[in-house]
Amino acid sequence: MAAIVRVDCVLVSPPGEYGSDKGYCNDDVEAGQPVVITSATPPNVLWEQVVEPATGTTANGIALKDCNEGGTVEYAFFGEIDGYTGLTPGDALTFVGGEIDDTAPGAGEPRQMVAVTPSRIRFNLI
What we know:
Blueprint: E1 5-11, E2 19-25, E3 34-37, E4 50-53, E5 61-63, E6 72-85, E7 92-96, E8 99-101, E9 113-115, E10 120-124
Parallel strand pairs: 2-4
Antiparallel strand pairs: 1-6, 2-6, 3-4, 3-5, 5-6, 6-10, 7-8, 7-9, 9-10
């Protein structure tokens, strides 16, 4: 299967229909990119957690804006994001190598993301 391409990703969920949080950005992140909360200790009291790009088959959220290392990254853990390409509405999606992929979840795996339009995903990562 193939990784889904990100193009100007933006949160499109109405207020109250998404969940988000912020953390210290441990590495550069792009809007629409899956992120994970690490076990690293935040560098100061401004942050409760350290967030970096996902690299494996799980993610804690999806970045809502571009963020450079050392900044504050905002990410959503459920909602809808638009700005991807090549999606087939109704298809379940997974994480492969830290990216959103059009590979369907395996038997017994949770269905955390689904394509709702050719460019939009709905996700719940909690």
